[in-house]
Design goal:
CATH class: Alpha Beta
Number of domains: 1
CATH architecture: 3-Layer(aba) Sandwich
Largest sheet: 3 strands, parallel
Number of strands: 3
Radius of gyration: 12 Å
Helix content: 40-55%
Order of helices and strands: EHHEHEH
Number of helices: 4
Distance between the termini: 17 Å
Length: 77
């Protein structure tokens, strides 16, 4: 199975604007992974219900530090 990984800095923004795209990718045969700093359990539950795999990492939404981003990416693997 092909995997598609979304690395996002804002769980609520992904929920509002990218969930439909992720559902379409899932329906096309992709395994969906979402890497983010999840604020609340309700979004994680929603994504898991949709069949997405969630990876909760420590990430600051407004951070542009590429080293912090890379470290979070490595932890998610």
């Amino acid at each position: 199975m092909k995997r598609l990984c979304y690395f996002v800095n804002s769980d609520w923004y992904f929920d509002l604007h990218w969930t439909e795209r992720a559902i379409a990718a899932r329906d096309a045969g992709y395994e969906i992974h979402i890497i983010s700093h999840f604020i609340g359990e309700e979004i994680i539950k929603k994504f898991k219900t949709l069949g997405f795999i969630c990876h909760n990492v420590s990430l600051v939404a407004q951070s542009f530090n590429m080293f912090v981003f890379f470290r979070a990416f490595l932890k998610a693997r």
